[in-house]
Amino acid sequence: MPGQLLTTSKRVTSHAKICVLLGFDSRTPQQLKYQEANRFVTLFLYLNDVDEGGETVFPYSPERLVTNIDRGAMSECSEGLAVPPTRLHAALFYAQTGANDLDPKSLHGGCPPAKGVKCKQRFQHPIDII
């Protein structure tokens, strides 16, 4: 169809069973000090409500939106900024600073839902630094 900007698919990603989180500490990981950012901006669109859990976490951020998170063995889900998945809400963040340095506060992970299923769509914009 002429003028169509986005394409859609019927693929739905579920985080109900599998979720990979990196281990974090309060220091910038060694690999981030020498790695260039590969995208400028990322947008997560949450497609459904989750009964409990399923937050997107930014463990290096000093800000907090949700403070009563307790995920037991997954301490990463209890640290930093946690954005709860809410149907048709979005999270937009920049992966690098204005000086083209990787912003460690943009490092993020997805916590598994404690109840329900999390469905989201990720949009990211890669850039070339010339």
From TrEMBL:
<dbReference type="GO" id="GO:0046872">
    <property type="term" value="F:metal ion binding"/>
</dbReference>
<keyword id="KW-0408">Iron</keyword>
<dbReference type="GO" id="GO:0005783">
    <property type="term" value="C:endoplasmic reticulum"/>
</dbReference>
<protein>
    <recommendedName>
        <fullName>Prolyl 4-hydroxylase alpha subunit Fe(2+) 2OG dioxygenase domain-containing protein</fullName>
    </recommendedName>
</protein>
<dbReference type="InterPro" id="IPR045054">
    <property type="entry name" value="P4HA-like"/>
</dbReference>
<dbReference type="GO" id="GO:0004656">
    <property type="term" value="F:procollagen-proline 4-dioxygenase activity"/>
</dbReference>
<keyword id="KW-0479">Metal-binding</keyword>
